[in-house]
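2024-03-11 09:14:02 DEBUG pipeline.ingest accepted 1 chain
2024-03-11 09:14:02 DEBUG pipeline.ingest length=212
2024-03-11 09:14:03 DEBUG pipeline.predict start
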Amino acid sequence: MIIVFLGPPGSGKGTQSSILCKKFNLKKISTGDIFRELSVQDTALAREVTQVMSSGGLIDDNLVTKVLIDHLETKNLQDHYLLDGFPRTLKQALYYDKYLVEKNKTITKAFFLDVPESLLVNRVSSRITCSNCGEVFNINQNIKQCSNCGSEQLSIRKDDNIEIVQKRIENYKAQTLPIIDFYHNRNLLVTIDGSLPINIVTEEIISHISFV
C-alpha cells in the first residue's frame, strides 16, 4: 500500500496521515523530515543538498525526488508507506511515477483534502506545533504538552501568520493543482471534504482504502 496525501496548508494532511499510519501500520514519509536528517549527515547527497541551500539556490524537482528515492532505498521501503508533502509539483510526480514503474509498484490512492480558503487561513493561523515531533494542535485547545511525544516545546511557526499563509496557499494552487489532475486522470484521486470534523474525514478516507 502506497498512499499520497495532497492538500493546501491547514487542510489536515498531517493529522489524517498520522491517524492512517497508526491504523494501517504505514511508515510516514515527509520530505521535510528527510531534509532535516540530511542536514546532520556527511554523505555525497547530503553535501549536494547543503551546497545548493547554502548558496541560496532552490532545490529543484529532480534533486527533491532524488532525496526521497534515496531515503526509500536506504530504509528498504518498497511499499506500505504514506507520502505527506510529496509530490509538490507535477515534475516531482512524474519523476516519482517513473521510479515506481521501474520497481513494478503503483500508488494505491491519492487523497486530496479540499477545504475553503477562508477556513484554511483560520486553521493555520490558530495552530501550534510541537517543536520535537511536529504534531499540530489548535491554540484554542489550551494544550500544554504534546499528546504524541510528551514534549512541552509547543510554539507558533513563523510561517503561520495570515499574510504568509495566504501566500503559501497561492503557491500551492500554482504548483500542486496540476498534480490533482494528474492523479485524477489515472483514476487514483479521491477528493475528500476536509472541512468536516476530523473523525468524519478519517472514516471517509478509510472507506476508500478498505475497498482497494
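2024-03-11 09:14:41 DEBUG pipeline.report Helices lie at 13-24, 31-38, 44-54, 61-74, 90-102, 117-124, 162-185, 198-209.
2024-03-11 09:14:41 DEBUG pipeline.predict end
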